[in-house]
Amino acid sequence: MLNQKILKVLREPLTSVIPCDSAVSVDIDVSLGDAAELMIRSHISNLLVTRQGKIVGSMTSTDLLKGILERLYEKPQASTLSFSETRQILQSSVNGLVGELSSSGI
User: Fold this and answer.
1) Residue 78 binned pLDDT confidence (cut-offs 50, 70, 90)
2) 0.70 cut: is pTM over it?
């Protein structure tokens, strides 16, 4: 019985869990800031990336954040930050931001 339920669920179309009209796309030439703003404004964590109207990839909020951090901390594009490096940079950035907000009274 459970196997039949699993098979039934696995046959359902993606639209049963993700409405097609909820996909948001950006052109590959959009700025990192504009992509981040769009994700925040749209309450999404993934963007479809297009070139001349055709999908060429996707970008998650993690991909975007890593791209921003690699540039801020001058990591070469060819290399990527490890998970521990990303976590360490993120933690220090968040701590610094919280400190700035606290001192400014926000």
Assistant:
1) very low
2) no
